[in-house]
């Protein structure tokens, strides 16, 4: 059941890669270059199920998730709470955490 699932582990990392060609400038930034770095967060529940996604939150905010129930940070009716928006993508994929269903392979209830 969604409201009883506790977040037991958080793993943060950066996926780094090389683009096939350099990305040019846009209206805000100069040339982006040929390297790309994407920050990723994986959340794992006490039952071993997990979700992941893009994350730009500070380390303190990420570790604040440990021990929290998923329903404290995510509401199925309204989505991610305002305090947790920097972790939004990982939380959305984690809404299936605790259901025994991989987040990318299950249809909505």
Describe it:
The protein is α+β, with helices and mostly antiparallel strands and about 110 residues long. It has three helices and five strands; from the N terminus they run E-E-E-H-H-E-E-H.
Keywords:
two-stranded antiparallel sheet, Enolase-like, domain 1, three-stranded antiparallel sheet, 3 helices, 36% strand, alpha+beta
> What is the average of the pLDDT values?
80
Number of helices: 3
By CATH, the superfamily comes out as Enolase-like, N-terminal domain
Model regions low in confidence, pLDDT < 50 over at least 5 residues: 97-109
**Radius of gyration, CA atoms, in whole angstroms:** 16 Å
Which range best describes the helical content: under 10%, 10-25%, 25-40%, 40-55%, 55-70% or over 70%? Answer: 10-25%
Largest sheet, in brief, is:
3 strands, antiparallel
What proportion strand? 35-45%
Number of domains: 1
CATH class: Alpha Beta
Q: Strand-and-helix sequence, N→C?
A: EEEHHEEH
CA-based shape: elongated
Layout: helices, strands, pairs:
Elements: E1 7-23, E2 33-45, E3 50-54, H1 59-63, H2 70-73, E4 74-75, E5 79-80, H3 88-94
Antiparallel strand pairs: 1-2, 2-3, 4-5
What can be said about this structure in brief?
With 109 residues, the chain is of the alpha+beta class. It has helices spanning 59-63, 70-73, 88-94; strands at 7-23, 33-45, 50-54, 74-75, 79-80. The longest helix has 7 residues, at 88-94.
């Amino acid at each position: 059941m969604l409201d009883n699932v506790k977040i037991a582990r958080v793993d943060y990392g950066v996926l780094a890669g090389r683009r096939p060609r350099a990305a040019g400038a846009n209206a805000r930034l100069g040339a982006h270059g040929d390297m790309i770095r994407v920050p990723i967060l994986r959340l794992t529940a006490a039952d071993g199920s997990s979700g992941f996604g893009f994350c730009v939150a500070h380390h303190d905010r990420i570790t604040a998730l440990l021990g929290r129930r998923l329903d404290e940070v995510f509401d199925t009716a309204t989505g991610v709470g305002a305090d947790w928006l920097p972790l939004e993508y990982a939380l959305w994929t984690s809404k299936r955490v605790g259901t025994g269903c991989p987040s990318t392979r299950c249809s909505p209830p």
